[in-house]
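Troubleshooting entry. The earlier prediction with uridine-5'-diphosphate gave an output that would not parse, so I re-checked the input for stray whitespace and re-submitted. Clean input:
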Amino acid sequence: MLHKISLGIGDIDKYRLIQPREPIDEVVKLGDELKGLRLCHINSTPFGGGVAELLVSYIPLLCAVGIKADWQVIRGDRQFFTITKSLHNALQGAAYEEISQEKTRNTYQNSNLANASQLDPNYDVFVVNDPQPAALRHYLPKSKAKWIWRCHVDSSNPDEEVWGFLRPYVEEHDAAVFTTKEFIPRDLQVAKITTMAPAIDAFSSKNMFIKKYVCRELIENLGFDRHRLLITQVSRFDRWKDPFGTIRAYQLAKEKIPGLQLAMVGSFAQDDPESWDMHAAINTEANKDGNIFVLSNLTGVGNMEVNAFQRASDVIVQKSIREGFGLVVAEALWKETSVVAGNAGGIPLQMTGNLSNYLVDSVEECAEKIVYLLQNPAVSQKLGREGKEIIRQNFLLPRLMKDELSLIKELVTG
Ligand code: UDP
């Protein structure tokens, strides 16, 4: 059997403390209507990256409203995950010539076949997250469940050959879900195609309220000077997050703000073999400057520490050049910390109104906006407050529950 992640039951009523009554009532009503429905999310890693982050909180909240929700994780060896990381990159537009090789296709297919035979099939609905398990449905042709493919990456301009390989598998699903309309590949043919943005859990250890002095103490214990300004990027060690662009922007900003510190907080994921080389390269760059710190989940920088960095930093940077959504942006804004971020993928969905002035297209622009916010803390605070309201209204978990349960209701009631 595949690994099932064991999780408790959440508390949807907590959201009544921070959100208006109506959206929560709607979710509870949907839960009542679908009571007992067996729903299984499938992905390729139990930790590291946005999907795992989301499911950890999302599954318990679904259980809280009466859904029998589970999470199964597929298995794979290094060869499989090397291929699937390239598929992920190719969906975001990178070339991947090896996809034409039979060996590459076979490895992907055989691994999906093996995982399909290990999957607990006793569910009414499966949600298959991202390209790694996208062929499972193909290898379970007798399944009576409804199958949804949930794409979390920016697939607006995928590598043609890779998309040509994946598309038939995706098209065997009953529905396909993308974060935004722009990400839907033009030639995709699925009976139901819809959009829903991810969301964050306001009450997780990543996002719960922590007093500022505790956050400052926490990061001081990691070697930072609490009396000097700090900017932080939190993300997987991944090329699309443009870590070297962030470092260059920091170097430019430092010319105006001597003493500025940069934290590059990153994580490794089970399904991301490229992250080791990327981590090493970032470390080499960071070692040239005593004020750049590289931290990771390997050395104990977990949810609580990320929470502290997102609260204690003067500005959060997310200089992505491709971004499915960027939960890290929502996480920082929820904490009223201002964000300077790449004008890419799902980030502009979150940075609307005045925040859109801090979407950047170059290293220079990124540095300029960082310096402006550091020199104008009142503007920065106002942006943070504006950001928190955007997240409250659009990007907390009950909204995602409502979107997904509405889709499921539509599928199961025909
Ligand atoms: N994250 C973390 N520790 C790190 C780096 C990232 O906990 O060192 C978390 C981050 O807080 C966020 C998720 O990993 O919840 C990344 O999600 P996002 O949507 O930003 O990007 P993805 O990794 O899915 O591309």
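This one parsed fine. DSSP finds 14 helices and 13 strands in the chain.
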